[in-house]
Amino acid sequence: MNSKERHELRYQRRKAKRLKRRHELNKLYGDYDKAISVKELAKAYLICRKNVRWKSSVQRYGFNLYRNTLKIHRKLTAREDTFKGFFQFDIFERGKKRRIRSIHISERCIEKSLAFNSFVPMMKNSLIYDNSASLKGRGTDYARLRTLKHLRSWYHAHGWNGYVIVGDFSSFFDSIDHDVLSGIIDKLFDDKRYYEFVRKSISHYGPRGLGLGSELNQIFAISVPNALDHYIKTVLRIRHYHRYNDDFYLLVETKEEAEKVLNDIRIITKKLGITLSERKTYITKITKGFTFLKKRYIPLPSGKVITRHNRRNITHERRMLKKFRKMLDEGEIPYSIVRQQYSSWRGYLKHTPATSKNYSKKYKNEYRTIKQMDELYNELFIEQEERNVYSCQCGSYCDRRHGRV
């Protein structure tokens, strides 16, 4: 037996092991009848109504919960379409317009049940450890802690010699290929009803792309570039790599290696139907620092890593406060909205992950910025603070105390 034959035998053993594992997971989480049962759909409603019970649509659905649930169950069993249309609205995040397409409460219950019982437990097993979006126990804090851990690990092995590739996918949700996503679902589940459900649900967004505002779309979106994650981690054996939705970074030793890896990434993303944002994707020395998830990471010669908030975010907040001052003078918004927005932003600036042991040290990094922003806020709105002007429930201004919002 030569080396090629031994290699083929090892590959077949690994393939058989993966198939066995997939069939075992399908027995646990691939029961479509259980996921769309009346019991599970009713449970999903109790979860979906949290924090939105004041909405009339949620209340109307809950008044006849089991009748509505039974109606949905029968439609799903008959493989009928349950789509009722979108509630569409726009939000502006840092000057960028985003179209949100929210779905009806009945469809949210379906997605919650399928996500909890099938899609999330099945799909998260194929994701790498350094994929931190849309999963319980992970998030931006987790991603930032992993970034610090990667930088410290790199320093112990190589010092600060090396390069970092910072990347971003352009129009990530809008560019997701339906055929690629459907292929992932088809390989994952033995029951083809999952594939049919996904094809129907994503077809409502047009020939390409997914909408913001759907729970299933979040887990679908992070699964599409999974082939890229495994290529970097398994084939290239790059340990210091992390991805959060459409943002990622990785550390390599030389610039030539960085350029080669970036070229490979472009080839793979093209096959997946995703395009890199050339404006936000770049290669730089680790010693110069880089920005990831609105945080600036600055390595010091001693091996310490300083984290700073992105300067653009602070500049944007300054401009926002000055704009609020004009809107307040013209009577377009109440003072309570201004205070709520600034309190939220200030809390975000002070926030440090709960797992961090050096909260006071990290807070010092932001102390000067918070002090300067407080001075600007007091300069613009101090007279409103002294008068205790709050928005009344009727929508007009008054000097009576309604309590801080």
Short description:
The chain is of the alpha+beta class and 405 residues long.
Give an overview in words:
This protein has 405 residues and is an alpha+beta fold. It has 3 domains: 31-125, no CATH class; 131-304, 2-Layer Sandwich (Alpha-Beta Plaits), CATH 3.30.70; 310-387. The protein is built from 15 helices and 11 strands. It has a 4-stranded antiparallel β-sheet, with helices on both faces. The model is unreliable at 353-360 and 388-405 (pLDDT under 50).
Number of strands: 11
Computed structural class: alpha+beta
Sheet of most strands:
4 strands, antiparallel
**Shape field:** flat
Helices and strands, in N-to-C order? HHHHHEEHHEHHHHEEHEEEEHHHEE
End-to-end distance: 76 Å
DSSP helical segment count: 15
Low-confidence stretches: 353-360, 388-405
Q: Give the neighbour order of strands across the main sheet.
A: 4-5-3-6
Mean pLDDT: 85
Using the coordinates above, name the CATH class of the largest domain: Alpha Beta
Helix content: 55-70%
Count of individual domains = 3
Cα-based radius of gyration, to the nearest Å: 25 Å
Strand content: 5-15%
Kindly list the characteristics that best describe this protein.
alpha+beta, four-stranded antiparallel β-sheet, three-stranded antiparallel β-sheet, flat
